[in-house]
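User: For my dataset I need records formatted as: sequence, then structure tokens, nothing else. Please produce one.
Assistant:
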Amino acid sequence: MPVGIVLKKAPGVTRWVRWHWSATAVLPGAGPAHWHVLRREGDAVEYHAATVTLELHGAETEAYLHGLTAEIPSLYVVMREAEGDLPIEVLLATASPYEAQDYTDSGEEIVEKVPMPHGLVAWVRDFVEEYHQEEAFVKRRRDKKRIDLVQDGIGDPRIGKAADIYASPGLKRRRLQ
């Protein structure tokens, strides 16, 4: 499904950061856009920055279910600071909190959490209901090695006697001479 990404540019709160960028909304079913101005309020400007495709995969239904059961179901917008004319490059939007977390690991991408509109929540929920298969938890069993056996005291055959185990290297040298 095509999803429009709305980015807000607001003045920074420190002298080191001139502008603060954040994803504020998503527009399900949006047409193509290229930094179209939606609203201005003083120095703050909201742009329909890009339209990306929201893809859902059958193998990721557990992650979508986890995201839907959150207090506020959300989409995650993955962005990167761009070089050139555009300040921010929108990479993708995902409904999987697990995938969003993977993008935060590198530190190069900016991941913003944006609340899902009700229609998009219903669309993702329908997908999950159709394709989700609950996996049964299988506890891993230990291997069959016997741990109740008593050792007979025979250890490494290279060690001549039990006293040699704790002997200092100097003492061993004197014995060898």
